[in-house]
Write a structure and sequence with these properties.
Blueprint (H helix, E strand, L loop, with lengths): L2 H7 L4 H30 L2 H29 L1 H24 L4 H13 L4 H13 L3 H32 L2 H20 L24 H30 L6 H19 L8 H25 L4 H12 L2 H13 L7 H17 L2 H11 L1 H4 L1 H12 L5 H8 L1
Helix pairs in contact: 1-7, 2-3, 2-6, 2-7, 2-8, 3-4, 3-5, 3-14, 3-15, 4-5, 4-8, 6-7, 6-14, 7-8, 7-10, 7-13, 9-10, 9-14, 9-15, 9-17, 10-12, 10-13, 11-12, 11-13, 11-17, 13-14
Length: 402
């Protein structure tokens, strides 16, 4: 099992840029929960926290592919030198405005700015693996699985860090901690110049249209978007559910349990020589995640307050997440030319981010009005729609799964 990973880390520079990318990506998992905890502490409103998350995610889903398009054309370091300073400063402005009782619209404005200059670090790391590995598809698949594992480590440790810092210091401190990781991670990642993929400036005759106009990218985007809706709705409901039983400060640990199981499945899947192609694995994982969401809903509705059973259902559900994302990213990357690799990976991640915006406001409203147990119906509905979203593009998927 470990032989594939030994080969992966024998690639020159791989361990260095992956580690620095880990630091740069860690705030991704911290900021969502940190902002929710911060806004709720300031306003006692999950609906407002959900609305800010919704607007932020919409902006993020548009900005990330555009910056990744620029990274493909002009280089990753140039993009980081622009995005990081604005992102960090506007995060600080968001905290200042909220703490000093500025109008709510100014909070949204600051959130829009910091998400408009977000760092697309996940796709940058994956693009570097493709660059340094070359044509070895099995090793590239291992790299995707490893980065999915890293994502889950990030989503396991990040919420715990955010929760601990917010609990032992003050809610805004978790946002400041994330800002520190962003600065350190960006400096370390940018210093790895030898592994930076070469830029691909526009040339006469190139197709300059956005990749989202491609029919198959759309067919991949929609189920991923609905999975993003599932992730964000579940994360928000976890916090609300634990709050109902006086355990809001422990919400990060339950999110970590959910992510830990996904990390385990990512590590295992990276060592497997798959006979199924990426399209079939992606579809199977979508169906599996839908089925494994049902026990979470049953636990919340019929065993309310039994947090051991709740944790067990989250762990079971998480086992389907990493294989889904690994197959989705691999399928996206193999659908375009190398000149657009970062952009297409960004569209895949953007689908998840845009999807996360869709249910947050209504989920927050349902939590505030009807309780978190009822709100677990939203994640289940998101996964049901994700399965159904294959139907309009069934002719394209039939070609891919052969």
């Amino acid at each position: 099992m470990l032989d594939a990973y030994r080969r992966l880390f024998a690639v020159p520079g791989g361990a260095k840029f992956s580690f620095s990318g880990f630091i740069l990506r860690l705030p991704i998992s911290m900021l969502y929960l940190a902002i929710v905890l911060f806004v709720v502490s300031e306003t006692d409103s999950y609906a407002l926290a959900g609305a800010i998350s919704m607007v932020s995610s919409v902006v993020l889903s548009v900005a990330t592919p555009l910056w990744s398009r620029v990274a493909d054309q002009f280089g990753q370091n140039r993009v980081l030198s622009i995005t990081v300073p604005v992102h960090v400063v506007s995060l600080g402005a968001f905290v200042y405005l909220a703490k000093n009782d500025f109008p709510i619209w100014s909070w949204f404005l600051a959130a829009i700015i910091f998400e408009a200059f977000v760092i697309g670090s996940g796709q940058m790391v994956r693009r570097r693996w493709i660059h340094v590995i070359g044509e070895d598809r099995k090793l590239i698949d291992t790299a995707y699985s490893f980065e999915a594992f890293v994502d889950e480590v990030i989503f396991t440790t990040g919420p715990v860090i955010a929760t601990l810092v917010a609990s032992y210091f003050y809610p805004a401190a978790s946002i400041f901690t994330a800002m520190g990781f962003i600065v350190v991670g960006a400096l370390l990642f940018s210093s790895q110049r030898a592994t930076q993929p070469p830029p691909h400036p526009k040339e006469p005759g190139d197709d300059h249209s956005l990749l989202i106009r491609d029919k198959f990218i759309q067919a991949l985007f929609i189920p991923l978007m609905l999975c993003g809706s599932f992730f964000s709705a579940t994360g928000l409901v976890i916090v609300g559910y634990l709050d109902e039983f006086g355990n809001r400060n422990n919400s990060g640990f339950y999110v970590a349990v959910w992510s830990l199981s996904s990390g385990i499945s990512a590590f295992v899947s990276g060592s497997i020589h798959w006979k199924l192609n990426e399209a079939r694995r992606f579809f199977n994982s979508i169906v599996a995640l839908f089925i494994l969401t049902i026990p979470i809903v049953i636990s919340a509705l019929f065993s309310p307050g039994n947090l051991w059973i709740f944790a067990a259902t989250l762990f079971l559900n998480g086992l389907a997440i990493a294989p889904l994302l690994t197959a989705g990213f691999a399928l996206a990357e193999r659908s375009v030319s190398p000149k657009k690799t970062t952009e297409v990976l960004a569209w895949a991640i953007s689908a998840l981010n845009l999807g996360s915006a869709i249910p947050t406001a209504i989920t927050g409203y349902i939590i505030d009005t009807y309780g978190a147990s009822v709100a677990f119906s939203i994640p289940l509905a998101c996964m049901a729609l994700s399965v159904l979203s294959f139907v309009p593009f069934i002719h394209l998927w039939k070609e891919k799964v052969r």
